[in-house]
Amino acid sequence: MFTQLKKMTRALRIPSVEDREMNYLNGSLDRIDLEYRQRQVDRGLFRKGF
Asked: Does pTM surpass 0.85?
């Protein structure tokens, strides 16, 4: 019963800023794309308020 509850809470969890940044960086296609994405993250792409 508790395992199902844990799975549900994990599925409904909102990803943190760090999680979104890491997912964005992991989606890079090559080294140049990764460096471009790293610069965007360093500039605060995901840190800005909505």
From this structure: no
Cα distance between residue 2 and residue 14, in whole Å: 20
What is the per-residue DSSP string for 1-50? -HHHHHHHHHHHPPPPHHHHHHHHHHT--SHHHHHHHHHHHHTTTTTS--
* Structure confidence by residue, pLDDT tens digits, 24-43: 999 999 999 999 999 999 99
